[in-house]
Amino acid sequence: MHSMSSSTRPRSLSGIQPTAESFHLGNYLGAVRQWVGLQEDHDAFYFIADLHALTVQPDPAQLRARVHRSAAQLLAAGVDPERSALFCQSHVPEHTQLAWVFNCLTGFGEAGRMTQFKDKSAKAGADKASVGLFTYPILQAADILLYNPHHVPVGEDQRQHLELSRNLAQRFNHHYGETFRQPEAYIVKGTAKIADLQDPTAKMSKSASSPNGIVDLLDDPKKAAKKIRSAVTDSGDTIRYDPEGQPGIANLLTLFATVAGTTVDDVVAQFEGQQYGHLKVALADLVADLVSGFGERTRAYLDDPAELDRVLAAGAARAREVAAPVVVDVYDKVGLVRGV
Ligand code: ATP
Ligand code: MG
């Protein structure tokens, strides 16, 4: 791969969990689109977070299939493996090796304050939530800090985890000497929290949304359009952008502006004086087009699983070049004796 190793460009890094058959509009607009944009002027590292997916005990065959589906979708979204290292988290063992060191630097109470853990464990039931789910933000800190990225493109729900990563970087540096960069969350206002179509106060989520609340990128276009048309909207009938008072309409306006490549103000102006239904029908068409092209591209990549494996292997090799020396350095610094 060309020029990446000697580059002085800033780095970007992010991951996505293979926790569903498809990514959804929130994943795409909130995160993956930014991955694609940043690869233009960053050295980019993007991974499929299969170890994170294990925290909710997926069926093994299903998990395996979803890793390929994830790789195909990331390529379909525009992640370019010539420019970005695209890999599978479990193929780079340095992630778990560094995670242990961070586990030992994280306070129990500190980990307990992570709101995603509270939400997800409350849903699973306290007895069913795994210790892996509890420590997953710490593995995530390792995922990130291994690559010393400048920018981490994520949705709003990851802000707290990013803050933990920054704290762990600082703590490690304080105890053991300057080692890690404190990464910046790259969160794009507007699309950072795409809402569930049926419950516009909640985020659209692979694991928590109801089928009608979520537009999957691999949905049949007609089905996707129908979901948009039946989105829950607010009482009143004025199309204006008011995320507090009218979260349903605000979400549709955000989706429209982002998918059409325009601004919320323009969309509001375009639909001035019209009813909610007009906005929904027009957005339904846009979204149907988006998922139609996306689905076609993804299926083409899925037709060649050997090529997907090749891309992931090349990405992992590139990632390990960066990650391996970091773990050696960290293990030295914390006082582990090198094996012979
Ligand atoms: P899960 O429910 O399994 O946690 P998820 O939908 O939250 O799935 P993740 O794989 O955890 O998806 O997250 C991948 C990326 O997508 C992250 O950067 C996350 O912040 C972002 N993201 C997830 N949901 C949304 C959303 N509704 N709006 C904007 N960004 C989102
Ligand atoms: Mg999530």
Automatic annotation (TrEMBL):
GO MF, any single term: ATP binding
Keyword list, A-Z: Aminoacyl-tRNA synthetase, ATP-binding, Cytoplasm, Ligase, Nucleotide-binding, Protein biosynthesis
Record bears the keyword tRNA-binding: no
Swiss-Prot/TrEMBL GO biological process terms: tryptophanyl-tRNA aminoacylation
ATP-binding among keywords: yes
Listed EC numbers: 6.1.1.2
Subcellular location, record wording: Cytoplasm
Catalytic activity: tRNA(Trp) + L-tryptophan + ATP = L-tryptophyl-tRNA(Trp) + AMP + diphosphate + H(+)
Gene Ontology annotations for the cellular component aspect, listed alphabetically: cytosol
Residues annotated to bind L-tryptophan: 143
UniProt motif ('KMSKS' region) ranges: 203-207
Chain residues that bind ATP: 17-19, 26-27, 155-157, 194, 203-207
One Pfam match: tRNA-synt_1b
Major site of localization recorded for this protein: cytoplasm
Family named by the database record: Belongs to the class-I aminoacyl-tRNA synthetase family.
PANTHER family from the UniProt entry: TRYPTOPHAN--TRNA LIGASE, MITOCHONDRIAL
NCBIfam families: trpS (TIGR00233)
Subunit relationships: Homodimer.
Biological role: Catalyzes the attachment of tryptophan to tRNA(Trp).
Designated name of the protein: Tryptophan--tRNA ligase
Gene name as annotated: trpS
